[in-house]
Amino acid sequence: MSGSVPTMVDPFMKALGLEAEIPGPGQARVWGVVRPEHLNLHGTAHGGFLYTLADAAFALASNSHGVRAVALSTHMEYLRAVGAGERVEAVAEEVYRGRRAALYRVEVRRDGELVAVFTGWVHRFAE
Amino acid sequence: MSGSVPTMVDPFMKALGLEAEIPGPGQARVWGVVRPEHLNLHGTAHGGFLYTLADAAFALASNSHGVRAVALSTHMEYLRAVGAGERVEAVAEEVYRGRRAALYRVEVRRDGELVAVFTGWVHRFAE
Amino acid sequence: MSGSVPTMVDPFMKALGLEAEIPGPGQARVWGVVRPEHLNLHGTAHGGFLYTLADAAFALASNSHGVRAVALSTHMEYLRAVGAGERVEAVAEEVYRGRRAALYRVEVRRDGELVAVFTGWVHRFAE
Amino acid sequence: MSGSVPTMVDPFMKALGLEAEIPGPGQARVWGVVRPEHLNLHGTAHGGFLYTLADAAFALASNSHGVRAVALSTHMEYLRAVGAGERVEAVAEEVYRGRRAALYRVEVRRDGELVAVFTGWVHRFAE
Could you give all domains of chain B from N- to C-terminal order, each with its CATH number? Predict the structure, then answer.
């Protein structure tokens, strides 16, 4: 599968203006632009906004195998602040997939520069 | 300080309908209602929405000492799904505060029931 | 059950001189003394030693229900350095227990002072 | 620099029979064999042993720039169990390095197969 997959955009992604594609099983790419309403008190992209970008890629990648997957544990490392108007992109890859659990790593970039790293485990429902 | 602190609500919190108060230094409480536009593909509150609730409490608590604090590393444990229309609340407490770094723990509850746990480190700018 | 539970001390705990007790289901307490062979290049307790103390309490607490539990994801927050000859203690408590996964929080203290915080998820094998 | 760097092996690494080399600044490789005294109650390598392997690589990589670095926050994802007699190797790489903080990712492998993933932040003391 390639190209934008509109049906994969859930309500929260839509509310934040995020778009997505699933390059292949276990993978996902989500992107968007930091709008004024996505900022924090420091005037930069809210941690929750950048996290949601990564989390959305994680959710799409982990649910791409036809088995329902729900987030169990995630972590986010913030490397660089992002400003309003900037375009950010999250790319998820599968690090490990077992029958009951799977691990994903997501890199968040702005113009190719790494701004955050996300790691997440899902619980997978029995096949 | 007690009661709602409107000036503490940043643009992203406002966009998500979140409200906040700072009961004391190093503390914060943030609450909101899960709206239809906050849902994921499974029809429950998006992981990014619940994270943002916790992250907002973390940001308010860590910036309550008059020293600028920015998120470095966070993690989120998801225990129970939350549905549309439900009210959720995040309460942040300071676990440790050093000169350069501080650690916060945030509990997210729905009607008193724990639904997620968040932990976050901030980098603190020199006093 | 109370008091030291020698049969609960696994080979690695024994090699590090750690002792343990299980105050009740879902709980554990592990303690030991930092010996010269537990130090790092900075001359303080090795991060791996303090982690093992916490991880051992996590393993005992999560395996205390009669269902085999194996670690999936853990994190450790280091607050204060510990020196040789000091006694450290880890206390684990259950934050959440589902059928397939459970979450524990462990506090590591030296003379009552918090020196590290550990969080860990286990995968639980079907009952 | 290549080959084993004996002076880099701290007391705890020595106690566990770990060896190390620093291929270049910001990098480290640590390896060892799982001995009977490194096992847990399930008869596999103790989580604390595998963590220490990764943590040692993290410590060497983060201290390789001539600035003292101490661990702040780490996490460990356990993918596969390792048995007694097996050789494991941890390879650390620098994901990000700022003036005050740096982030490392460590992969733990057994015969090339990924068995655990570690991520760690250090606080760096002023240059």
Answer: 6-124 (3.10.129.10)
